[in-house]
Structures are given as C-alpha cells and as structure tokens.
Specification:
Number of strands: 6
Number of domains: 1
Order of helices and strands: EHEHEHEHEHHHE
CATH architecture: 3-Layer(aba) Sandwich
CATH superfamily: NAD(P)-binding Rossmann-like Domain
Shape: globular
Distance between the termini: 43 Å
Strand content: 15-25%
CATH topology: Rossmann fold
C-alpha cells in the first residue's frame, strides 16, 4: 500500500497544468485531495486572505486535519513586462499570485496541519536566472525559494518538512505561448542536457516523493526537475 494512503492533501492551482498532474499522482498514491483554485467550485482566491480562511475551514470540516500541502498555483505574464516601466498592477498581480499566494493558504491551514506533515512549494529555475521581460516572475519565485527555507526552520519543531521543487521548462498551458514563439522550443531543448522538455508528470513524481515517508529527513531544500538546465551555461 502506498505511503500516502488515507493522507489528506491540499493542492493549490490543482485545476490545470502541473497542479492537475500533482493531484492525479497523489490520488493514485492513495491520498485524499482537496483543490484550492480560482477555477474550482467553490472558487478559492489564493491572493485573498478571507478566501483562503474559508477554504481551510471547508477542509478541516471535512477531514479534521491536513497531512500534505502542495503550493502549485502560479501565473506568468507575456514577454516584455519590464519591471521599471511596466504598470504597478502587472507587477503586483505576479507577486500576489506567485509569492503571497504561496503564503496565504499556509497561514490559513497552519492550525490544522498535522505534526510530521510535508509542505511542498513550487519555485522555478527562474529564481536564480534573471530573465529580461519576466522580472516580476523571477523575483516572486526567488521569494518562494527563501520562504521555503524560512518555513522549514519555523516548522521544524513540529517535524513538519518544507521543501521546494524547481521545474525547468515544462509543457503546460501556461508555458505554451512562450514555447511556441518561433525557434524557442528548439532553443530550450538545445540548452537542456537531457535534450527534451519536461512534462507535468516529471514534477508530480518529485512531489510524491517529498510528500511521502521516504523523504522524512529532507527539509529546507530544493529539488530541481529541469533536465539539467540549471547546471548548463545559458
């Protein structure tokens, strides 16, 4: 029987892309999964504290506690959003969803997270590689990386593990426009040592390991799921 059998999991951004793949993997491994997503019914706005509190209350009413939290919700704007000249609304939207939207669900769920639980954030290879035109996203994901390390320290006394997964270029609806730009897909594959784009299931496999008992002595770290691109020169 899977080590996740019967465990209560929450996945933000679980309605599509990487989040949906994570949901399916956790369900396959026996977990009971609740999805927090603006596209879910009822919708949960991870950038709104009241919405997150209401979601947490629904989860605790149904299950009493939470064993696994995966914070996968994210957005990326189209290219050429320059941080010095773009609208403040665009900057705020990216920071709110990708960074504050990682914190607010955890703040709401924390009283109900069981000791020995596993929390997993989704950062990105962009947290250490600045990308012109995508600066707000890079800053937000760098913040998620540091938030992960901070939470690992703050929750260690409860034996709650907090880790991050940093995907590389993964084929999802969110990345489609970026990858479909002329020549972009071939260029990305060429700079990826394993010679292919990632799939959502590649990320979900890493999440499942971090969620289970096999990673019980792992906290505060980042697992790269990027085909080796982080170690390659860009």
């Amino acid at each position: 029987m899977s080590s996740l059998a019967g465990r209560i999991a929450v996945v933000t951004g679980g309605a599509s892309g990487i989040g949906a793949a994570i949901v399916q993997r956790l369900l396959a491994d026996g977990a009971i999964v609740e999805i927090a997503d603006i596209a879910s019914s009822p919708a949960t706005d991870i950038t709104n504290e009241t919405s997150c509190i209401e979601f947490a209350q629904r989860v605790v009413d149904a299950h009493g506690h939470v064993d696994i939290v995966v914070l996968a919700a994210a957005i990326v704007l189209s290219a050429d959003h320059r941080v010095l000249t773009d609208s403040l609304d665009a900057w705020s939207r990216v920071i709110d969803v990708n960074l504050t939207g990682t914190l607010l669900p955890l703040r709401a769920l924390e009283p109900y997270i069981a000791n020995n639980a596993s929390i997993i954030t989704i950062t990105s290879g962009e947290y250490q590689h600045a990308t012109p035109g995508n600066g707000a996203y890079c800053v937000a994901k760098s913040g998620v990386w540091m938030l992960t390390k901070t939470l690992a320290l703050e929750l260690a006394h409860r034996q709650i593990r907090v880790n991050a997964v940093a995907p590389g270029f993964i084929e999802t609806p969110m990345t489609q426009a970026f990858l479909d730009a002329p020549g972009r897909r071939d260029k990305v594959v060429a700079i990826t040592p394993l010679g292919r784009l990632g799939q959502p299931n590649d990320v979900a496999d890493a999440i499942a390991w971090l969620a289970g008992d096999q990673s019980s002595f792992v906290t505060g770290t980042t697992i790269w799921v990027d085909g080796g691109i982080a170690v390659n020169e860009r």
